[in-house]
Amino acid sequence: MMTSIPLLTRLPAWQALQTHYAKIRGLHLRRLFAEDPNRGERLTAEAVGIYLDYSKHLITGETLELLLQLAEEAGLRTRIDAMFRGEKINVTENRAALHTALRAPVERAVFVDGQNVIPQVHAVLNRMEEFAKRVRNGQWRGHTGKSIRTVINIGIGGSDLGPVMAYEALRHYSRRDLTCRFVSNIDGTDFAETVRDLDAGETLFVISSKTFKTQETMTNAHTARDWVLKALKDPEAVASHFVAVSTNAEEVAGFGIDTANMFEFWDWVGGRYSMDSAIGLSTMIAIGPEHFRSMLGGFHQMDEHFRTAPFDRNLPVLMGLLGLWYNNFFGAQTVAVLPYEQYLKRFPAYLQQLTMESNGKRITMDGTEVAWQTAPVYWGEPGTNGQHSFYQLIHQGTKLIPCDFIGFIQPLNPIGRHHDMLMANMFAQAEAMAFGKTSEEVLADNTPSWLAPHKVFEGNRPSSTILLERLTPEALGKLVALYEHSVFTQGVLWGIDSFDQWGVELGKALAARIIPELESENESVLDHDSSTSILIRRYRMLKKLPD
Length: 547
Ligand code: F6P
Prior knowledge:
Distance between the termini: 56 Å
Structural class: alpha/beta
Largest sheet: 6 strands, mixed
Number of strands: 13
Helix content: 40-55%
Shape: globular
Bound molecules: 6-O-phosphono-beta-D-fructofuranose
Strand order of the largest sheet: 1-2-13-12-10-11
Number of helices: 22
């Protein structure tokens, strides 16, 4: 299906932004702040308990106006409405992108192909709740009558990263006598190390795969089944130790899991947008149904904000536009996400799939090649660790790296001065990046002139500061939805389909071809390029040699 979208670079606001960029590119944040004492208050926005300070960005009032105009001209409003209405905005897969329906209240109605999907969403949530409670209270027993002490989610990509991130992020709220582990990699070490100290009789596997065909997940699932059967020595054990989360009942049954133990979701939920669906089963078991529903409530609050707030106060829209400003005008190649919260240690990894699998595209929705940059590389580490590692480059390197600082006012583990020190570091880093240290200031410290240039901080490094009160399940929901919608905002402006992922297919197909070549006993003829063929031959030859 072809969709007619406005050509980004022909939009009047884009052209005005180009002229504007040339005019303001030399501006320094020192000057912008000096000229407007209220800047730190003015360039902020607050909604649903999230405070966004975007004053330390290389923008003026005019920049903001033009970016907002660009969003209007690109038809962002219409596209937001289309997404929430359940239109098939994922054009290359002819699907709706309705993750927002996963967290909509039961009284809402959202239609896909004439059917209201909200009742089925809540029916699955209720089944998950019933199951999670049984696992948590020990009613769900393993085959030998023991209660479950470890839940292992086997999945990859969106069927892993969301659950891992949420488990780590909400560990404070989780039962400590019922732990979750995650197996994703095809590397046998992942499985071996994960189960090494476990009793199969106390272990429940949640096989999470939208398609139930993904090579890594299905291989790990079969290995898990062998491991359980070897330990418990009864094929009947599968029923008590395996449940499935999928859209594909046929494949689930084919694997040997009773579909009564399957938790369903739907093709209109993209993998990287699925942590609120049944893919969140391990999260719900860990934190309990009430906390899980409160997380969904947080997502929904941000959804409503995104859907209804005017763009100039709309957090995901503002963040999306600021990201585009650096990506498309300053030529920034990456964005650093810096959570000053240890529980968010997997948040950057989660965001990598969300942002880069969504917007790492070069073809627009109408099938032509883009004439502008699309998604930057996302990366990051929790503070303060990054400060003793890569911040050097952010402060004094030659690359412009816009940063997202994420912090919470209340600590979950108040110990001595730790939290004040943590937050002081976060505020200090944003301040240092923006304002730096001039040569005069360095020399005033009695620094010898030969050393002074090394100690100068140019500043003018832009950042957003995102402040929330406390890391609760609800807050996590708001934060994730903030990024989801900011990614969508950018995808709309770049004119791409943020919900497909064709770029993962070629590698999958080539690996499927190479696997039998590595396993074959006879020297089959290799029809690859010379580099790949030599690597395969070398691998085949050396793997046969004794240790
Ligand atoms: O990496 C490609 C991808 O399709 C992701 O989009 C998805 O999250 C992941 O693989 C896992 O897919 P599935 O849930 O079908 O196993």
